[in-house]
Amino acid sequence: MTEEKISDVRLRSRIWSALRVAVFICVTCFIWNDMPKTATAFVLIAMAMGWVNLYQLRSEEVEKPYYRLWLNVIDGALSFVVMASIFIHDLLKEESAEKLLAVGCVLLLARLIAHTLFSLGVLREGKQLPRKRRWSKLANISITITMAVYLLNLEDYQQISMVTSMLLMGASTAAYAYWYYRDPAHRKPLSIASQLTMSRIVLTPFFLWVFFYDNDLDYSNNSLVFKVLSLVMVLGFMLTDYLDGKLARSMGEVSTLGKYLDPFSDKISNMTIFMCFIATGYAPVWMVAVIYFRESSVETLRTLAASEGLIMPARRSGKWKTALQGMGIVGILAGAIDPIRHFIPGFDGIWPYFPQTIMGIITLVTIISGVDYFVASKHILKKFV
Questions:
Q1: Which of the two residues, 134 and 85, has the higher pLDDT score?
Q2: 209 near 163, Cβ under 8 Å?
Q3: DSSP state of 313
């Protein structure tokens, strides 16, 4: 592309960006004038204009770095202004507003500030700004859709759309931070398998928040949307647990880090879920205490082996234990969803005893697995006893 052509495309891109800013300003005006449907239409127009600018005009390829940075800042600031306007307008009009919307506004502002500071740091170091990654594009689309959902007051979809946006914002921020801090000259990038393993650790606090979203220890009172989301997150944990090992072996990326990180992430996610079960009455304290004792004992044994330059391989009993824990957790969370429980004949009758029965079986298998590990590792213990 010639310099003249680049200048022409750059000019059109800036004009298009200016028009998009004007559209967002109109959205804000329509919100304060109680015209939600018109505001929604303009939000969708802004989303279409962003798509044209990114994919048709290819603004990221032709725009100068600092211009691109400040255009992104303005775009993010306008998204925050629109979201904050929705929240404040609802608060003034109804004297109450969705708490999740307030959290989303805070996260949106924090993401904007963090992205700006990181980008300025990149430019001052004389490096090129990265193009928008997949997570960032998905986050921006989700935020725009969330605006429309709140403007139209679609109560059944507000929470799920906002949670989706928050998760995508977290993923895009983590991806950007990882790109920023990674030094290819001195540090080997994490493999795909290790990234999947890390995702379980990163998402575990989000599970805790989703499980107790209604601020009530009784999980049965939680919203159906968040019960389903809890189940989906656990299924995601199980899927990544299956994929990380499979990918590491198939791509020849088996590493010492992965061998330690995989069981650690399993224990972090599962023990967090079990502690949630204690709070809501699905598991007695002693069962989770026994499970914790087994997990910490095996990890201590693994650490002792590492101090002698040995790697304690995973036992088949450990794999069965992890699989059973996952299936048990899925069974309990699925049973807590009323439509699923009512659909299965006779499940309502056994439900009061189901969670603790499943946890009892999990505890028994966990104990057996722990004994198996210690019996198989007598040669390691002899070095210290």
A1: 85
A2: no
A3: P
Which residue intervals of 3-98 are DSSP H helices? 3-32, 36-51, 59-62, 65-94
Output b/e per residue, 184-214; b: 16+ Cβ within 10 A: eeeeeebbebbbbbbbbeebbeebeebbbbe
DSSP letter at 220 equals G
What are 172-208's pLDDT values in tens digits?
Answer: 777 666 666 554 543 455 567 767 777 787 788 888 8
User: What pLDDT digit, counting tens, does each position of 4-53 carry?
Assistant: 666 777 777 778 778 888 888 898 898 888 888 998 998 888 888 877 76
Lowest mean pLDDT segment, chosen from 263-267, 282-286, 360-364: 263-267
3-state secondary structure of 160: helix
Burial of residue 216 (CB within 10 Å: 0-12, 13-18, 19+) is: exposed
The secondary element (H helix, E strand) that includes residue 119 is helix 99-124
* Token pair of 67 as six digits: 């211009």
Nearest to 242 by CA among 182, 200, 205: 200
Amino acid (one-letter) located at 322 = T
Helix, strand, coil shares of the chain, percent, nearest 5, are 80, 0, 20
- CA–CA distance from 96 to each of 91, 102, 106, 162, 234 (Å)? 5, 11, 17, 17, 32
Give residue-wise pLDDT tens across range 204-246: 888 888 888 777 788 888 888 889 989 999 998 888 878 777 7
**Residue 351: closest CA among 330, 335, 337:** 335
Q: How many CB atoms lie within 10 A of CB 161?
A: 20
Nearest in space to 199 (alpha carbons), one of 253, 262, 143? 262
